[in-house]
Each structure stands twice: as C-alpha cells, then as structure tokens.
Amino acid sequence: MSDTPLCPQCNSTFVYDDGNLHICPECGHEWPIGTTGETGGLNVRDAFGNELADGDSVTLIKDLKVKGTSSVAKIGTKVRNIRLVEGDHNIDCKIDGIGAMALKSEFVKKA
Ligand SMILES: [Zn+2]
Questions:
Q1: Which residues pair with 45 in a beta bridge?
Q2: Distances from the Cα of 69 to the Cαs of 5, 65, 91, in angstroms?
Q3: 58-60 and 108-110 beta bridge pairing
Q4: What is the distance in A from the centroid of ligand 1 to the CA of 111?
Q5: Contact at 8 Å (CB) between 89 and 102?
Q6: Ligand 1 (ion): which residues have CB within 5 A?
Q7: With the C-alpha atoms ordered 92, 22, 1, 19, is the resulting torsion angle positive or negative?
Q8: From CA 6, how far away is CA 66, in angstroms rounded?
Q9: Whole-angstrom distance, CA of residue 108 vs CA of residue 58
Q10: Which tens digit of pLDDT belongs to each residue from 53-74?
Q11: Would you say the pTM of this structure is higher than 0.85?
Q12: Which of 2, 30, 36, 76 has the largest CB neighbor count within 10 A?
C-alpha cells in the first residue's frame, strides 16, 4: 500500500511523501506516514492472531453494544469488507441492520 492518503485537515489530494512524513501543500499540514488510516504500517490481528486486511470479512466472537444506541451486535454476526484504522477500535465496518461502527480486533475472528 503506497497510496498517499487525503490530507486529514483539508482533504487535499495533493499530499506527497517526504521521508517519514506526509506533507500537504495546500494547508501545510505534516504528519507521520502510517497514522491516518492507511494500512501501510498497520498490523491488526484478530482474537486468534490472524492478520487482518482491508476488505476482509470477520465474525464477532462477543456480543458488542453499539455505542450511542440500544442495539447489540450479536456474537456470530458476520461483518464484510472491514477497513483497518489506527487506534483503540481498529476496525471500521458496516454491519447489516446496525450501520457503521468501530470494532476492536480482539473481539473478531477472521471469517
Ligand atoms: Zn491539507
């Protein structure tokens, strides 16, 4: 994955790389490579140590409350087309019947 991301500040597409930094020529924002949701430096593993990648399908291994709602994503729910991101909740996804949510990779299993 060597795609240069959009600028997180102004969404510019003219971002270029310089050493370990992404640089946005439009707003001057600079940030380290590998911190804005690109999968280049990400190493996300499921609960069993399988490496996950963008576009993978996973299954929940635990009932998860959906933040801000009374919904629960049930154990065994299949989640398609995940997207890896940086952070505590390192999987972005959309679950049928629930919508977009963020998951922790430790609560999923690669399908
Ligand atoms: Zn910018």
A1: 51
A2: 31, 8, 19
A3: antiparallel
A4: 37
A5: yes
A6: 7, 9-10, 12, 24, 26-27, 29
A7: negative
A8: 28
A9: 6
A10: 999 999 999 999 988 888 899 9
A11: no
A12: 36
